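Input sequence (127 aa), recorded before submission:
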Amino acid sequence: QVQLVESGGGLVQAGGSLRLSCAASGRTFSRYAMGWFRQAPGKEREFVAAISGSGGGRDYVDYVKGRFTISRDNAKNTVYLQMNSLKLEDTAIYYCAAGVTTYSSTYYYRLGQYTYWGQGTQVTVSS
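Predicted structure, token format:
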């Protein structure tokens, strides 16, 4: 069982930055690929970024590439999402998720590949 707790959301002006954190319980954090997803009002939850258990592999949805950076600190059982140059359309609830992997280089894109989810943190970008 893994418990995930997000933090770092808030209100920010367009062009600003936020850093989200997701702290995980358990002693096998490096066995899990981690992902960030978001859900805007009236929309489905969508993939934002993912990182492998080792941290060596990562990927992003196209419209955040160059602006968002996912990273992890396995010693602290924490994954981060640094968000720069925020846009109004980035407003959403952001969720972190964990999916167990066999290989430390694996990461996932689909919601169904993740077993554990946090409660979400609200990010609001204002003009």
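Checked by second reader. The CA atoms of residues 27 and 77 lie 8 Å apart.
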